[in-house]
Amino acid sequence: MSVLRLSDVAREKEALTSTSTSSSSRLSLRDGLSRCGIGSILTGVDKEELRRRVMIPDRLRSAMLEAVRLKSSYVADFRADVAAEVEEEVAESPLVVFVNCKSGGRHGPILKGRLQELIGEDQVFDLSMVNPLDFVQYGLAYLEMLADSGDFCAKSARENLRIMVAGGDGTVGWILGCLGELNVQNRKPVPPIGVIPLGTGNDLSRTFNWGASFPFAWRQAVKRSLYKAITGPICRLDSWKVTVSMPAGEEMDLPYALREIGECTIEQDGDIEGELPEKAFCFEGVFYNYFSIGMDAKVAYGFHNLRDEKPYIANSPITNKLIYAGYTCTQGWFFTPCISDPSLRGLKNILRLSIKKVNSNEWEAIPVPSSVRAIVALNLHNYGSGRHPWGNLKTEYLEKRGFVEAQADDGLLEIFGLKQGWHASLVMVELISAKHIAQASAIRLEIRGGQWRDGYMQMDGEPWKQPLSTEYSTFVEIKRVPFQSLIVNGA
């Protein structure tokens, strides 16, 4: 019996030694990962540590909310001298989150609650209740006012602020557009943004490594996403201004992506074929991913109208894609009868395309292939839920066509065409590339109505019906915005 006990003791010591060695190895691995800056992602993000790093001091949060509510950058009850009376910890990586609760089916409101649980209610804004432009014009302006008066905490919060956007590509573009006003007003720095993808396509999110969709294991994923938002490297992104000039007297329902700028004059530089109206009204907007005209925009317009009329059928990204695919089949893109109806013909019948190349001030006319029924001007690699219609082109082909390798910050748009639905389908499954038309630093479209009463356009997933005149030309001009947007890389 004593021998057996001694053996048991020996085995127990051996097991303890093995466990100790294993634990030491795990600790060493964890320490190594922490020193590399990735331990928090692989081993879990501590909630309290995350909250400590992103938390903006209470007096500043309350004052910013009040400034946004009052639409004023001056809040009488919150003065800079209060900071001298209170000891407070400076936020290491201040973070504000905007949530589009209408995106992502049922996930939006649940996600909002989780985010408020993680970083506090006052730093999570519901876009149905808070306009992001008001936050920029009043909330950030209040921090700037305090910083100018010597408030170190406000100065640190303003200079180090990052913003997280939970929504689809349209929501991300909306926030980027509002932040772009800081560049216009020379209010630097402009906060970079991270993304929690809640949309259908999520091409901006894919491009900057934030994922293709809202993850199933979302509770832990939210913490990791917030951690990446405050630690990830910052990338640059071109943005493009679209100006639509149409004859006065035509009525148009504007998407939220466009705003009216009133009566304008159409520039007559370059070769203009049609008649110019005596008076023109202009609308403008900004896109980050793509602008398109033609059949794809018509399908998107029909889908959006259907979703607005029957919102209960569009309750998830997967459902949206199925409905979108079904709607495409009903619009005549796949089966086009050989009849004389001009609405079933290619864009060449109504559209004249001109471009400016890099380092050129001259407009150059580009022929539109007769088979093309949709033209897309693409800024990112991703289009249509992560597809790559421009393709990965070989060096020899690039040189032959006078193209350069496409980048999101190269000051160029890739212009390609889609033919009938079968061609578009093969492009979308990446069996073939789209019809390459040009690369351009600026684009002008002259649209002649003729028998066409309406055209269809979209930018970053926001479609609209564009009325066309039978007498005068409508113009769409696309130019790069002088300032680039900043996005955190989520890799």
Keywords:
single chain, 491 residues, alpha+beta, seven-stranded antiparallel β-sheet, six-stranded antiparallel β-sheet, 15 helices, disordered N terminus
Describe the structure.
By secondary structure, the protein is an alpha+beta fold. Helix content is 37%, strand content 21%. The protein has 15 helices and 19 strands. It has helices at residues 2-36, 39-42, 47-54, 58-70, 82-85, 107-119, 132-148, 152-160, 169-184, 203-207, 218-231, 295-309, 317-329, 395-401, 421-428, and strands at residues 95-99, 124-126, 162-167, 193-197, 234-237, 240-247, 259-264, 280-287, 290-294, 351-356, 364-366, 374-378, 413-418, 435-440, 442-447, 454-459, 462-467, 474-480, 485-488. The strands form 4 sheets. The chain has a 7-stranded antiparallel beta sheet, with no helix packed on it. The chain has a 6-stranded antiparallel beta sheet with strand order 14-13-12-9-16-17. Mean pLDDT is 80; it is low at 1-43 and 334-340.
